């Protein structure tokens, strides 16, 4: 069997030096015209790079990890759709980790960076403990956190203001004449759960509405748990005319239960969610939801990480914080029920 194409044969076909071919194949800065010639020649000759040898030489895996709570959550899928093409264009593969929001699992992913299985990590922690913050700070590769992270962790951060998002939704419901606005939340020991609980109280106070424990239920950020929480809410018998849900999956569960109870949406009870996922847009009725810019947050996180990986000078630059502003997307689950 004959030997495959080499750097020398590619250089001969492209009409450039072997050094230029080496620079292109190793992803080093090179003139665009040279890159075009080398890649065209490599393709014509059927060159397949030895990625293992190249990784050993460069001490790079050319992989980036993305650790999230639940790979089935549409919010994270939307982020993946933005992250992957950004990384692919820069020559990186994307490795996914579904951690189940387990802090120990997230810490293990961070520590495994020392083994160089990935050159960097994008992390979305739901529960930010002191131990996790310390592991983020000590990571032996660049880390970008989507969500809140203490400044002393020293890593780039992409965040959104979910508290403002709750306020936008409650202002909208209030403007429609709703005054008994219930709130169904996820676990209070999570970063989003705690933030959205505080935001609900603050928004009620700003609108001059009393806080009523009967109007509040806590479950989890899933459809079935959201439905169970809404059943508990209705069983308490409050005069509910709107339900603010901490995410779209809870809002879908709310629609299920309200239909079971013979209540019309939005005529009897308006429903609003958070995240503005495809599921919210495709529900019946379509769900009013607060967009937290999931796609943009994913894209910006990938760009921040690539900047850190670009060179040693970038790796030592001060941490960057990117904020994505929430927006209310109004649909039929609320707008048809003006009183």
TrEMBL record:
It holds the Pfam family Peripla_BP_3. SUPFAM superfamilies: lambda repressor-like DNA-binding domains, Periplasmic binding protein-like I. Gene3D superfamilies: 3.40.50.2300, lambda repressor-like DNA-binding domains (1.10.260.40). It comes from the Bacteria. Residues 5-58 form the HTH lacI-type domain. It comes from Bailinhaonella thermotolerans. One of its GO terms (molecular function) is DNA-binding transcription factor activity. Keywords: DNA-binding, Transcription, Transcription regulation. This is LacI family transcriptional regulator.
């Amino acid at each position: 069997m004959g030997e495959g194409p080499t750097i020398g044969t590619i250089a001969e076909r492209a009409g450039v030096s072997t050094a230029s071919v080496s620079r292109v194949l190793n992803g080093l800065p090179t003139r665009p015209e040279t890159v075009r010639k080398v890649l065209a020649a490599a393709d014509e000759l059927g060159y397949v790079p030895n990625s293992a040898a190249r990784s050993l030489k460069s001490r790079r895996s050319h992989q980036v990890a993305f650790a999230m709570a639940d790979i089935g959550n549409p919010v994270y899928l939307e982020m993946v759709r933005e992250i992957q093409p950004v990384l692919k264009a820069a020559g990186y593969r994307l490795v996914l980790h579904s951690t189940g929001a387990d802090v120990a699992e997230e810490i293990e992913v961070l520590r495994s960076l020392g083994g160089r299985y990935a050159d960097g990590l994008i992390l979305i922690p739901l529960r930010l403990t002191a131990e996790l913050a310390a592991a983020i700070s000590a990571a032996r590769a660049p880390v970008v956190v989507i969500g809140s992270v203490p400044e002393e962790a020293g890593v780039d951060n992409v965040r959104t203001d979910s508290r403002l998002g709750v306020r936008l939704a409650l202002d909208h419901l209030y403007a429609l004449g709703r005054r008994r606005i219930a709130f169904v939340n996820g676990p209070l020991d999570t970063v989003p759960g705690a933030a959205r609980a505080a935001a609900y109280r603050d928004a009620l106070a700003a609108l001059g509405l009393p806080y009523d424990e009967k109007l509040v239920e806590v479950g989890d950020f899933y459809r079935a748990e959201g439905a169970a929480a809404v059943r508990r809410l209705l069983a308490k018998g409050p005069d509910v005319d709107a339900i603010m849900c901490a995410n779209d999956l809870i809002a879908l569960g709310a629609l299920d239960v309200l239909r079971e109870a013979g209540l019309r949406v939005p005529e009897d009870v308006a429903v609003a969610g958070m995240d503005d996922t495809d599921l919210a847009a495709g529900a019946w009725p379509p769900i009013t939801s607060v967009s937290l810019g999931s796609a943009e947050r994913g894209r910006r996180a990938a760009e921040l990480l690539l900047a850190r990986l670009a060179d040693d000078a970038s790796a030592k630059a001060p941490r960057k914080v990117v904020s994505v502003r929430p927006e209310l997307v109004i649909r039929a689950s609320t707008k048809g029920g003006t009183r």
